[in-house]
Specification:
This protein is an alpha+beta fold and 364 residues long. The protein has 14 helices and eleven strands. The strands form four sheets. A three-stranded antiparallel beta sheet has the order 1-3-2. Strands 4-6-5 form a three-stranded antiparallel beta sheet. The relative contact order is 0.14.
């Protein structure tokens, strides 16, 4: 890996895109905690204790009151002879959304399957711990039950080794698919070759932000690096020296592909780091994001480093739309509906109180 570094520079447009997703991000974390609990029900006290881990900026009670219909409370027993305590479960809006989500997932199941296969195909041994994949499922649009439902229905591609929830449970690649083994960069080169009638070599789309200038030494290194042949993240890297420029080319290609597979074309850096061993990433892989500012951006918003694929955005607007983005948009519509009706309900309540007060004054 190169020892040259580039100074980090804030990108207000991309930071704003991340900020605008805050309601979705916080609510989806809470919803996932409930949906992954037995019977889709979780003690309210347990959810409140997980606030820090979920990185919620407000109390759980505040978040629920701001999003009516998302979750509802009910009384249930923790143990057979214990007193009933408040639990939370999907509310009427969330239940309606889950029906829409199931329809969208069914329509786009081949895409989810391809993403899962691609993640496993990029790993060094073509096998990834099941829990790691479960933890990133929402980033890539995978269904919560993909281990028990999606994987068993495609035995020609994948195999579940072990029992979900146990330490020795893995998703293993069974059959190699050449179409899945084409990266986003390689597919783009193929499409351009067809359009132009000329053979176009796979290459990175470099988009330095306005006003960003590299020092001369870094410009020369970047030019030489870009002229090197593209190394597919699906290729065999056993013959590459870990410190070679070719290995960095492969690592950057893999990071690009991982972000291309994500629904929002961005993934938290710590999330990628959990796959360091499987993806043959060095302990300093974050430097690859920072050293290629025309390909990636690392945002510091939300208290966690977020790796963003620059080419997927134009002035903070996501233009490279993943088909599974439909689920996020429907989820956001559900939140907006609840908040709008909540505001209208509070307005009517306030007007009723004002009328009651006015009537009392007039009658005195």
């Amino acid at each position: 890996m190169s020892s040259l570094n580039v100074s980090w520079r804030k990108d207000p447009h991309l930071d704003s895109a991340i900020d605008s997703d805050n309601p979705y991000r916080y609510c989806s974390r809470v919803v996932r905690e409930v949906l992954t609990s037995p019977n889709h029900s979780l003690p309210l006290s347990h959810l409140c204790r997980r606030r820090r881990r979920l990185r919620l900026p407000v109390r759980v009670s505040t978040l629920l009151s701001r999003n009516p219909g998302l979750l509802e409370t009910h009384l249930a027993r923790l143990r057979l002879n214990s007193s009933p305590v408040p639990f939370v479960r999907p509310g009427h809006r969330l239940r309606r959304y889950l029906l829409d989500e199931a329809r969208i997932r069914s329509k786009h199941e081949p895409i989810a399957l391809a993403k899962l296969c691609k993640l496993v195909m990029m790993s060094k041994d073509r096998v990834i711990h099941a829990e790691k994949l479960q933890n990133v499922g929402w980033d890539f649009g995978l269904p919560d039950d993909f281990l028990c439902d999606l994987v068993p229905r495609y035995p020609q591609f994948l195999e579940l080794v072990g029992v979900p929830g146990e330490d020795d449970c893995f998703v293993k690649l069974v059959g190699w698919n050449d179409e899945f083994a084409k990266s986003a960069i390689e597919r783009r080169a193929e499409e351009e070759s067809v359009l132009t009638g000329f053979s176009i070599a796979p290459r990175f789309d470099v988009r330095l932000p306005k006003g960003f200038h590299l020092q001369e030494e870094m410009r020369e290194w970047a030019r030489d690096w870009m002229e090197m042949p593209y190394v597919s993240p699906y290729s065999d890297t056993s013959g590459l020296d870990k410190a070679s420029p070719e290995m960095e080319k492969r690592s950057v290609g893999l990071l690009h592909e991982v972000l291309s597979l994500s629904v929002l074309r961005r993934v938290p850096v710590p999330t990628i780091g959990k796959f360091g061993e499987e993806f043959l990433l060095s302990n300093t892989f974050l430097e690859a994001f920072l050293r290629h500012p025309g390909i990636f951006y690392v945002s510091l918003k939300g208290g966690v480093k977020m790796a963003v694929l620059r080419e997927a955005y134009e002035e903070g607007r996501l233009v490279d739309r993943d088909p599974l983005l439909e689920m996020k948009e429907r989820f956001e519509e559900m939140l907006m509906e609840g908040r709008r009706e909540g505001r209208e309900g509070r307005k009517e309540l306030m007007q009723g109180k004002m009328k009651a007060g006015s009537g009392g004054f007039g009658g005195g």
